[in-house]
Design a protein that fits this description.
The complex is a heterodimer of chains A (41) and B (476). Helix content of chain A is 24%, strand content 37%. By secondary structure, chain A is α+β, with helices and mostly antiparallel strands. Chain A has one domain (6-38). In chain A, strands 1-2 form a two-stranded parallel ribbon. The longest helix of chain A is centred in the middle third of the chain and has 10 residues, at 18-27. The relative contact order of chain A is 0.39. Chain B folds into two domains: 5-316, Peroxisomal Thiolase, Chain A, domain 1, CATH 3.40.47.10; 323-472, 3-Layer(aba) Sandwich (Peroxisomal Thiolase, Chain A, domain 1). In chain B, helix 5 crosses helix 10 (180-203). Chain B is globular. The relative contact order of chain B is 0.15. Classes of the chains: A alpha+beta (41), B alpha/beta (476).
């Protein structure tokens, strides 16, 4: 799905954490250009 | 050694800080470059009566139960019968807060202008706790030429109308850990923590000399350039509040800190190390005005205009107060990673399984109870409602309830968010005095306190953390 794509990953503490999204991106063939998890409260 | 530890008492305070709100992290970064936004911000600050009457503030102070809050919107409304002094503590006006800052300032950092100093001294002299338990002579010593102090490099502190009220100098010109903005945050934390601890001791008739240890779960880091988070806010607050026999230490875990602090306090008591341990939380000045842009966009007042404080006393079992179940402590394990369901399993299932309870056996879950009227306008959603739905969904996944019963579970075991967005304060701690009242009365048997902390914000770990602990009624 993400072959050859670079992905910016923004995770959220109460939702999906950045590393979890990044793992999915990599598993789907992409690479992570930037990854962070943020807290919005 | 006692068989169990109990939460003997808890107190909550708020300090109205519309003038200091501009020193919150977000306003301090945003306002200076935009005069029009500055004016809009200033015009959107609340009056003291508006802050007192604001229904969520009254829920925090015990003027009503969170479940008794009227329907939203709350902004612009007043809870009938609301007063500055409420069952759990008080909401202090800003002139008194500035005086309180001076009263706990042991290093002559603050220069109060004569007008504000006189007003603060007069009002604090009439305050039921400040007059007898704080060194108000420090206000006289702090009175001086605030404008001159600012010309000499002090940080200007304005009142809500934009009039210079005080100047705060830094602690050392070459130490980034002791700049005036950092010291303002720490002094505000110390002041509100002290106010909460004074209410805890004296509203409940407790003996300050009996407290042997104080644990701070405040968010600020006290230190110098060689040790930025050196501490010890706990002992600073204990000293200011007159706990002469107490030592102390700080527990740091981002917003989760109150729960490990409570668990450590109870552990020290049950282990026989100390008979009485206070847990104290001063407020977070950096979070003032954190979401003000959303509020202005939706024509709301700047709702993050209060600095909160909380204090709790943990002692051995007195046969009356709610027990802290140290055999039902949930911890977010390293191996659990960052998936929400797994975190929640660690916090809301494992501690209950350890003592043979089902999720439905907990009457009330106290999770992150941020006031949704503050969070929603900035796009952060309703944190409390989201947490409760996730807890209910977990109960459904475990087969404890039907999927159709999720809404009913949320209604029965949850409540609306009502706490100011002062992270650690909103993390279950805000509900503690309500829980004590219900557990003492026997109207509920069990309350699970849950908190999460965003460790990744400190850039040392991608992980978050969390802890939970079960409180149980002592009524047989």
């Amino acid at each position: 799905m993400f072959d050859g794509k670079q992905v910016i990953v923004i995770g959220e503490r109460d939702g999906i954490a950045g590393p979890a999204i990044a793992a999915c991106v990599v598993a789907a063939g992409g690479s992570v250009a930037f990854m962070a998890t943020e807290c919005f409260v | 050694m006692p068989d169990a530890a109990v939460v003997r008492a808890a107190s909550m305070v708020l300090a109205h800080a519309p003038g200091l709100a501009r020193h919150g992290s977000k306003p301090a970064r945003t306002l200076p470059a935009d005069p029009a936004l500055q004016a809009s911000f200033r015009d959107s600050l609340r009056t003291f009566p508006d802050a007192v009457g604001y229904p969520p503030h009254q829920a925090y102070l015990g003027g009503c139960h969170p479940r008794e809050l009227p329907p939203r919107p709350w902004a612009g409304t007043q809870l009938p019968g609301a007063g500055r002094f409420a069952p759990f503590g008080e909401l202090m006006p800003e002139d008194e807060l500035l005086g309180l800052l001076a009263a706990v300032d042991e290093f002559d950092l603050l220069t109060l202008g004569p007008e504000i100093a006189e007003r603060a001294a007069k009002r604090l002299a009439a305050h039921p706790l400040a007059a007898s338990h704080l060194d108000l002579s420090r206000l006289s010593a702090a009175t001086g030429d605030a404008a001159g102090a600012v010309r000499s490099g002090a940080l200007p502190l304005y009142d809500a109308a934009g009039v210079l009220a005080a100047g705060l100098r830094g602690g050392h010109e070459q130490d980034e850990a002791l700049t005036a903005p950092v010291l303002l945050e720490n002094l505000a934390c110390k002041a509100t923590g002290t106010l909460a601890l004074l209410h805890l001791m004296h509203d409940h008739g407790l003996d300050p000399a009996a407290v042997q240890y104080t644990i701070s779960c405040s968010e600020e880091a006290v230190g110098d350039r060689y040790q930025r988070g050196g501490g010890n806010m706990a002992k600073a607050i204990a000293s200011a509040a007159g706990l002469a026999e107490s030592s102390g230490a700080d527990v740091k875990d981002f917003c989760a800190a109150p729960i490990p602090a409570l668990v450590m306090a109870a552990s020290l008591v049950v282990a026989g190390v100390f008979e009485q341990v206070a847990v104290v939380a001063g407020g977070s000045l950096p979070k003032l005005g954190m979401k003000f842009e959303g509020h202005l966009k939706h024509r709301l007042p700047v709702l993050e205009d209060v600095i909160a404080g909380a204090a709790v006393l943990v002692t051995g079992d007195d046969g009356v107060s709610p027990r802290i179940r140290l055999d039902a402590v949930g911890r977010h394990r390293v191996s659990s990673g960052g998936a929400g369901a797994q975190i929640l399993h660690d916090l809301a299932v494992r501690p209950l399984e350890a003592v043979g309870l089902a999720m439905s056996d907990v009457d009330t879950y106290a999770t992150e109870l941020h006031n949704p009227e503050i969070t929603e306008p900035q796009g952060s959603g309703d944190v409390a409602a989201r947490n409760y739905r996730t807890i209910a969904a977990l109960a459904a996944r475990r087969g404890e309830i039907d999927k159709d019963s999720i809404d009913a579970f949320v209604t029965r075991h949850g409540m609306p968010g009502f706490a100011p967005t002062q992270g650690h304060i909103a993390s279950a701690l805000c509900y503690l005095p309500h829980a004590l009242a219900e557990l003492r009365a026997g109207t509920v048997q069990r309350v699970l306190l849950m908190a999460k902390g965003s460790l990744f914000l400190g850039r040392m770990s991608q992980r978050s953390d969390g802890m939970s602990v079960l409180l149980e009624s002592n009524r047989r």
